Amino acid sequence: MMNLLIRNCRPMGGAATDILVEGGRIAVIAPGLAAPDGVAVEDGGGRLALPAFVEGHTHLDKSLWGMGWWKNEVGPRLIDRIDGERAERKKLGLDPARQSDRLAKEFLKRGTTRIRSFADVDTEIGTAHNDALVALRDRLRGTMDIQVVAFPQSGVLVRPGTAELLEQALRNGADIIGGLDPSGIDRDPKGHCDLIFALAAKHGVPVDIHLHEPGELGAFAMELIIERTLALGMQGKVVVSHAFCLGDVARADALYAALGEAGIGLATTAPPSRPVPSVKKARAAGVSIFGGNDGIRDTWTPYNMPDMLQRAMLIGLKNEFRRDDEVELAFATVSDWAAEGCGFADYGLGVGARADIVLLEAETVQEAVVATPPQRVVVSHGRVVARDGVLLA
Ligand SMILES: [Zn+2]
Questions:
Q1: Which helix (H) or strand (E) segment is 66 a member of?
Q2: Which end of the chain is more exposed for a tag (fewer CB within 10 A), N or C?
Q3: What distance in angstroms lies between residue 320's CA and the mean position of ligand 1's atoms?
Q4: Is 57 found in the same domain as 29?
Q5: How many angstroms is it from 254 CA to the middle of ligand 1?
Q6: pLDDT tens, 323-373?
Q7: Cα(113) to centroid of ligand 1, in Å?
């Protein structure tokens, strides 16, 4: 918990001012502040100041970052990727503790201090990935906030023993219970949703379900999720990730309205290759919609970077955002709305918020999104933790 004076920066592209941080929180925002005795001073040099970014959906545990280029020869179906990954991670000797630590730090260097990460749980690795992420979360507390989602990547009902492992993962400290394509993988939508929500109710944890299923199949699963959210009073505690069906089902408007009423959030990666939920339609229905990379350099995909400004740009492109007021929405999906949707507290650049701040060379928020400037000063809890891509201590 640090004290810091940032001189001459421009919060959200506004007029130049100073930011005084006390005890790790923003205490005063005003121009020409005097530095209290012994307070570290950071010269903002007139740069843009943004709230540090939020990654709302990634898989820290299985990135191959730093392990050399991996030649991707995986088949085209979802199940090819799921089965291929289980075989490859064994061959590659993927160490989830090392890889999640590595990728979390790449995020931090580029200005992200809050992350929701899934951790694979299955009958081959048990809770090892989950436990590695829980340990990382605890070790980085005070610098980064990491939420761990116990995630049945290989299905639950199709692999007996997985439900018990998910429960063990929650006992071992996972924050959230994950689910996956109730029809497409488990082939039992009611059974899958009942099981996931029963675990959530028993352990008092939120739910985050990967729903890749398109069209009516996805819409049906979404209705099951909405029913259970309402029945258990879990409004504000449930997220549907991907929700591709909202991009191609005819009755999407009714689903957005139902999601809004049930307080269910949406995580989107906005991939170029799939129909996706609309940021504007979601917000108009009162739905929290926020951005995430999904996997980064893993056996699923060679793409994606631990840089939430780049993700905001991709969300803007996919949503055809051009006007300044639209590109600002893209930034909201990796900042305010992601903090809101994931439940990260004390967020933003207001007085009283935790002092997690990024300084970078851009005139406006919009320019930061489209130019993704690499030179950044990253402040976490009022401490400068990274400068121009280099972590400090
Ligand atoms: Zn994912």
A1: none
A2: C
A3: 23
A4: no
A5: 25
A6: 999 999 999 999 999 999 999 999 999 999 999 999 999 999 999 999 999
A7: 19
Count the alpha carbons within 13 Å of 146 in the hemisphere toward its beta carbon.
Answer: 33
Residue 393 domain-assigned?
A: no
DSSP conformation class of 386? E
If you measure from the C-alpha of residue 41 to the centroid of ligand 1, how many angstroms do you get, rounded to a whole number?
A: 40
Give me ligand 1 centre to Cα 288, in Å: 18
- Give distance in angstroms: CA of 107 to centre of ligand 1: 17
Rounded to the nearest angstrom, the distance between the alpha carbon of 212 and the centre of ligand 1 is 10
Same domain, 161 and 35: no
Q: Report whether pLDDT(268) > 60.
A: yes
What's the CA gap between 22 and 355, in Å, rounded?
Answer: 9
Domain boundary among 342, 361, 377: 342
Residue 2: per-residue pLDDT: 79
Dist. CA 294 → ligand 1 center (Å): 5
Residue range of the domain that includes 39: 4-51+348-388
Domain check: are 114 and 36 in the same one? no
Distance 241 CA to ligand 1 centre (A): 7
Residues 16 and 121 reside in one and the same domain: no
Residue 329 lies in a domain: yes
pLDDT per residue over 76-126, tens digit each?
Answer: 998 899 888 988 988 999 999 999 999 999 999 999 999 999 999 999 999
Confidence of residue 3 (pLDDT cuts 50, 70, 90): very high
- pLDDT above 60: residue 1: no
Report DSSP letters for 221-277, one per residue. HHHHHHHHHHHTT-TTSEEEEE-GGGGT-TTHHHHHHHHHHTTEEEEE---TTS---
- 70-84, 147-161, 263-277, 377-391: least confidently modelled range: 70-84
Ligand 1 centroid to 158 CA: how many Å?
19
Q: Provide the token pair at 64.
A: 């191959």
Same domain, 12 and 104: no
CA of 116 to the centre of ligand 1 (A): 10
Please list, in sequence order, all residues whose beta carbon lies within 8 angstroms of the beta carbon of residue 1, skipping any fewer than 6 positions away. 23, 24, 381, 382
User: Would you state the pLDDT for residue 78?
Assistant: 86
Give pLDDT, residue 144.
Answer: 98
